[in-house]
Amino acid sequence: MKGLIRNITLFSILLILKISVSQSYPEWRIYNSSNSPLPDNQIASLMLAADNTVYLGTYYAGMVRFAGYSWSIYDSLNSPLPNNFVSVLLLASDTLWIGTEGGGLARLVGSAWTVYDITNAGIPSNWVRTLAMDTNGHLWVGTDKGLGIFDQLSWQIYNISNSGLPRNDIRSFEIDNLNHKWIGTEGGGLVKFDGSIWTVYDSTNSQLPYNQIQALGIENGNIIWIGTDGRGLSRFDGINFLTYTSTNSDLPDNWIRCITVDDLGNKWIGTGGGGLAKLNDTTWTIYDTSNSGLPASRVNEVALDNFGQKWIATAGGGLALFNEGGIVGITQDSREQIPTGIKLHQNYPNPFNPITTISFNLSGPAEVSLKIYNTLGEEVATLLSASLFSGFHSYDWDAGNLASGIYFYQLSVNSLSGEQIYQKKMVLVR
Questions:
Q1: Domain boundaries, the chain
Q2: Out of 147, 235, 332, 352, which could bridge 158 as a Cys pair, Cβ 3.0 to 4.6 Å?
Q3: Distance CA 214, CA 259 (A)
Q4: Are residues 124 and 146 in contact, defined by beta-carbon separation less than 8 angstroms?
Q5: C-alpha 8 chain-centroid distance
Q6: Are the C-beta atoms of residues 246 and 262 closer than 8 Å to each other?
Q7: pLDDT, tens only, 369-418
Q8: 88: which strand partners?
Q9: Interval 310-359: pLDDT, tens
Q10: d(CA 370, CA 414)
């Protein structure tokens, strides 16, 4: 009980701090593991759908889907996700591609999962660093052992032994308006591939300041922005390189993690320790933990929603939403409303095969478990056993190879008012 009281006290303090920060910086909205169901504040990757649904890849807790009231968490225990370090995400039509560090590549269409790794596919490595889809519908997969191209049927591999790649470790990848592939390597510089010719730009044959490329961005379809690992940011127009560093510009940090270009041509640059920088070609604007609502100094990814707002993945501070004119299209109530009671929702879909989503509301902090039982009363799965804060929580269950039939899911909530147990029935149909 004392531990629970401490949790409530901590939650109250965090809520007060959160309200204070929100009032100080109304242009910012922060989602972290203290004020939302976000399971990990270390966010490695970020992708937005056309309807502004947010997909997040974390360092240690798998993938998160965030839409309206709904948070869905996919990890290696409750889904076929092969690894909980989700390094890159790509949404193409109705298909979500999920790259992991050590588990290969996963494809999610609706509730159907497919996993590609070195044991069952032609992917060059299980360490996936970058993903892109070309105009032919071919998926380009950058790994630590070269490039894989997947046409939905077969794989083709490019590496240092069969192509013009100078290094196998691929860190970034972009496609320009001529369908040229731009490849950032770890130690080999920048590569352009036009389908037949490989052109390498490095520190010995060009003005590229450094051969360790961590991020790429494209402006107007043909201007390449290059983020290096310690030597700043470069702009390449196909002929000349122009480099910005912390010594010759207002760039706050020379370690560049991501580059996103908005519709007005502003460059949003995430750094390894200097926060977020905005460059409009003549003026720099810096957002860091001391002058803004940015919750952490390392920014791994920036994505733009339909309102032009910036969704920012940080390492240690969770997810930030930023709009210079104030947050629009998303109300504080719709995203962070605290439920008035405990409610276990009916799973969806039901009947299902083999994956279904189970969700529930909590009105306050509690020790929570979510378990699955068969008709004999035998426990067949534990989806959750953790301390949670108030809000909406959602988890997917993959029935795997279990037989068709009736199953029961049971929610146990242990709070100040004691233990409460809720149970519902679901049907697995093969």
A1: 26-334, 338-428
A2: 147
A3: 10
A4: yes
A5: 29
A6: no
A7: 999 999 999 999 998 888 777 777 778 889 988 999 999 999 999 988 88
A8: 99
A9: 999 999 999 999 998 788 766 444 344 456 688 899 998 999 999 888 98
A10: 12
What token pair was written down for 66? 């965030």
Nearest Cα neighbor of 357 from 115, 114, 116, 110 is 110
Q: What is the mean pLDDT of residues 4-9?
A: 35
Burial of 116 (0-12, 13-18, 19+ CB in 10 A): buried
- For domain 338-428, the question of CATH label 3.40.50.150 is answered with no
- Other CB atoms within 10 Å distance of the CB of residue 281: 9
Residue 327 has which token pair?
């947050």
**The two three-digit tokens of residue 67, written as one number:** 């839409």
- Token couple for 301: 């990814």
CATH class of the 26-334 domain in this structure: mainly beta
Question: Which tokens belong to 294?
Answer: 């940015």
Residues 70, 359: contact at Cβ < 8 Å?
yes
CA dihedral 156, 160, 162, 164 (to 10 degrees): 100
A 10 A CB-CB count for 260 gives 20
Residue identified by tokens 């339909």 is 306
pTM: 0.77
For 142, the token pair is 């950058």
Q: Is 52 left (phi over 0), alpha (psi -120 to 50) or beta?
A: left
Q: What is the rounded distance in angstroms from the CA atom of residue 51 to the CA atom of residue 363? A: 28
Q: Which of 296, 291, 297, 261 shows the shortest CA–CA distance to 279?
A: 261
- Strands of the 198-201 sheet, one edge to the other: 170-175, 181-185, 190-193, 198-201
Nearest to 28 by CA among 287, 338, 239: 287
Q: Pick the closest to residue 74 from 286, 387, 356 (CA basis).
A: 356
Question: What is the average pLDDT score of the chain?
Answer: 90
